[in-house]
Amino acid sequence: MAERLRVLVIDDDPGVREYMEALVSRQGYEVFAAVDGEEALAKVGDMRPDLITLDVVLPGIDGLATLAELKKKLPDVPVVMLSGHGQARNIVEAMRLGASDFLRKPFEVEELELAFQKALEKRALKQEVELLRSRARTESELLMLTGGNAKMREVTEVIEQVADTDITVLVRGESGTGKELVARTLFQLSNRREKPFVKVNCAALPSELLESELFGFEKGAFTGAQKRKLGKFEFANNGTIFLDEISEMHPSLQAKLLQVLQDGEFSRLGGEADVKVDTRIIAATNRDLEAAVRDASFREDLFYRLNVVTIVIPPLRDRRDSIPVLVDHFLQANSERYKKEVRPLSAETLGVFMQYHWPGNVRELENMIRRIVVLGTEQAVLDEIALRGKQEKREEAPTEMLGLEALGADFSDGEGIDLKAISRRAAQVAEKRVIEKVLGHTRWNRKEAAERLQISYKALLYKMKENGLSEGR
Question: Which CATH architecture describes the domain 144-314?
Answer without folding.
Answer: 3-Layer(aba) Sandwich (3.40)
